[in-house]
Write a structure and sequence with these properties.
Blueprint lengths: L3 E5 L3 H13 L4 E6 L12 H4 L14 H8 L2 E4 L1 E7 L4 E6 L5 E5 L2 E4 L3 E3 L13 E2 L4 H13 L4 E5 L3 H12 L3 E6 L10 H13 L3 E4 L3 E4 L3 E4 L4 E3 L2 E4 L3 E3 L2 H5 L23 E3 L6 E2 L6 E2 L4 H15 L13 E5 L2 E7 L2 H6 L4 E6 L14 E8 L5 E8 L4 H12 L4 H6 L14 H13 L4 E3 L4 H6 L3 E4 L3 H6 L6 E2 L18 E4 L4 H12 L5 E4 L2 H16 L12
Parallel strand pairs: 1-2, 1-7, 2-3, 7-18, 9-16, 10-11, 10-16, 11-12, 26-30, 27-28, 27-29, 29-30
Antiparallel strand pairs: 4-5, 5-6, 8-17, 13-14, 14-15, 19-20, 21-22, 22-25, 23-24, 24-25
Helix pairs in contact: 1-8, 6-16
């Protein structure tokens, strides 16, 4: 007689663990409970139903109960909520939410995959009104689209600048709504550093979404949102996308161990404090790959891996739990962004000695008509050169470049490994020296002290202090637009104009994207100039970094004109 396995929750973690158990044990009796109407749906794709990219909400449903039965011999029960666990008797109490009838099921092994709950801060007046929505389930998106249609909604405010908030805002805009995106912090996309999100800010603004940063929602009225600053925003519907908390109701009831943040504590094998109960997915506490410290990560990929590992352990299979590094990507209109590992803020918080390289090559051979700028930031440990993280923003392929870095991190790679990494090459897809190799080479120059740099975040200070800034571009490029106060000494001329370059003060050099300026900096260093710095990102990086804040704050630009090409 096979094991009787119960699974609570049917999305990434729950459905994956049920399918894995079946593959390991054809004789097992498997019952999966989902309190909602759908089991095994793609919650990551939910925002794309708003715009019609996914035409029907039913298309979000990956498998139905009859399909689970026919393909896997799994009893998938929708509208059935597990309301209590009796650990001593190894039973659960189940409520049919349609009939209110309750019944009991026994188990040999119980898997919890309850997911996470979207945050609705009760301190916000009006947070529970009928025109306020979250975006976690298929019924959530159905409720929003139905309400918007029935009430002739034109203005929608999205609260929260994380991945879900960005995707919801984008798809609402595509659907024809007037959209405002409100984020309480000073940037969207917290996994990225401040300098790397500025391209996203410009893209949001360019596509007609009103982006409000550094302000929080205080009150939601019938047709408007009132912010802490006093600003009022027209809003006939509001989508709250400010984050999630672990769904731990069952775990609390069963007196399973919880973290301070409310996540379910699990061991190496994803067993809870009761060895017959496992937990996976968004509700659990997991381990940071870098520090070994406990953390939380709400991503589908890790949830599926956890599900497989937990099922394997039940059947005596071994598993190496390496922890999580946090890899994700997002599309925002025509711009793509991806990240993995640690960012600068996280390195600083952990007391890690680090540095980074920042490069802006083309994502493929520049002669190709669809070649685009690729903004790439590679973070590494000092002095080991161990790779800690990376961020990429561009209109082309960013996700697979970040996947390369994620792989290197998991294999404990360093800059030398990344420099020598042999990647495929075709003019349609990349350059002979791909951006990840380029970033590693630049990072090694920094690590080895062969070049000094100044981040794009400090250029305004240099301009305001009237520092010696050299523009190494050609004269026609300089004439079109340049950093105010910069002296134009092209790379093609500087050896004949050394008398214009002082040796007794710091000199800061830039070009379009730091390649020509790098060559000038290296040459000047060999000619006796001891205090020469390359400006990260150069003119292109400065324009991208400065633009959004210039427009929003109406401050004086430090460039004569912006150039994003």
């Amino acid at each position: 007689m096979g094991k009787k396995v119960l699974v609570v929750g049917g999305v990434a973690g729950g459905a994956s663990v049920a399918a894995r158990v079946r593959r390991l044990d054809e004789s097992a009796e498997i019952i999966m409970f989902e309190r909602g109407p759908y089991v095994s749906f793609s919650n990551c794709c939910i925002p794309f139903h708003i715009s019609g990219d996914i035409e029907k909400s039913q298309d979000l449903v990956l498998m139905t109960p009859p399909e689970f039965d026919k393909q896997y011999n799994i009893d998938a029960r929708v509208y059935n909520e597990v309301v209590a666990i009796n650990k001593e008797e190894k039973t659960v109490e189940v409520k049919n939410v349609q009939t209110n009838e309750t019944y009991t099921e026994s188990y040999d092994v119980l898997f919890l995959a309850p997911g996470a709950v979207a945050l609705r801060p009760q301190s916000i007046e009006g947070i529970n009104d009928e025109h306020v929505f979250v975006m976690k389930t298929v019924p959530d998106v159905e409720a929003l689209t139905t309400y918007a249609k029935d009430n002739d909604v034109k203005d929608v405010t999205v609260v929260g600048g994380g991945y879900i908030g960005l995707e919801v805002a984008e798809n609402l805009k595509y659907a024809g709504y007037n959209v405002t995106l409100v984020e309480a912090q000073d940037q969207v996309m917290a996994p990225l550093d401040y300098d790397m999100v500025q391209m996203i800010n410009r893209e949001i603004m360019k596509n007609g979404v009103d982006l409000v940063l550094g302000d929080s929602v205080q009150k939601i009225a019938k047709d408007k949102v009132i912010l802490a600053s006093g600003r009022e925003i027209n809003a006939q519907a509001v989508v709250m996308a400010i984050g999630v908390r672990p769904e731990n109701t069952l775990a609390k009831q069963a007196d399973l161990a919880l973290s301070d943040s409310g996540a379910i504590k699990v061991n190496h094998h994803y067993q809870t404090s009761d060895p017959n109960i496992y937990a996976v997915g968004d509700a659990i506490e997991t381990t940071c790959f870098f520090t070994g410290q406990k953390t939380q990560l709400t991503l589908a990929g890790p949830a599926q891996r956890q599900a497989r590992a937990a099922a394997d352990h039940v059947y005596g299979r071994t598993y190496v739990n390496t922890g999580v590094i946090g890899s994700s990507s997002v599309k925002m209109f025509g711009m793509n962004a991806a990240n993995t590992g640690l960012n600068e803020k996280q390195c600083q918080a952990r007391g890690i000695d680090y540095d980074y390289s920042y490069v802006i090559p083309k994502d493929k051979v520049g002669l190709m008509p669809d070649a685009e700028n690729l903004f790439f930031k590679l973070i590494f440990q000092v002095p080991s050169g161990k790779i800690l993280g990376a961020q990429a923003v561009g209109r082309g392929n960013v996700d697979k470049r970040i996947d390369v870095i994620a792989t290197a991190i998991m294999l404990n790679g360093n800059l030398e490994h990344l420099k020598e990494l042999e990647l495929t090459y075709s003019p349609h897809f990349s350059t002979a020296k791909d951006v990840v190799n380029h970033a590693a080479l630049t990072a090694l120059n920094i690590l080895n002290g062969e070049v000094k740099k100044v981040p794009v975040t400090k250029v305004r200070e240099l301009v305001e202090s009237k520092a010696m800034i050299i523009d190494a571009r050609e004269e026609d490029e300089y004439a079109l637009s340049h950093i105010k106060g910069a002296v134009n000494i092209p790379l093609s001329q500087f050896r004949d104009r050394l008398d214009e370059i002082p040796k007794d003060q710091p000199v800061y050099v830039h070009c379009r994207s730091s390649q020509r300026s790098y060559n000038m900096v290296r040459a000047l260093g060999q000619l006796g100039y001891d205090h020469v710095y390359n400006l990260d990102g150069s003119f292109l990086g400065v324009c991208e970094y400065e633009y959004f804040n210039d427009v929003v704050s109406k401050r004086e630009p430090i460039v004569t004109d912006y150039n994003f090409n």
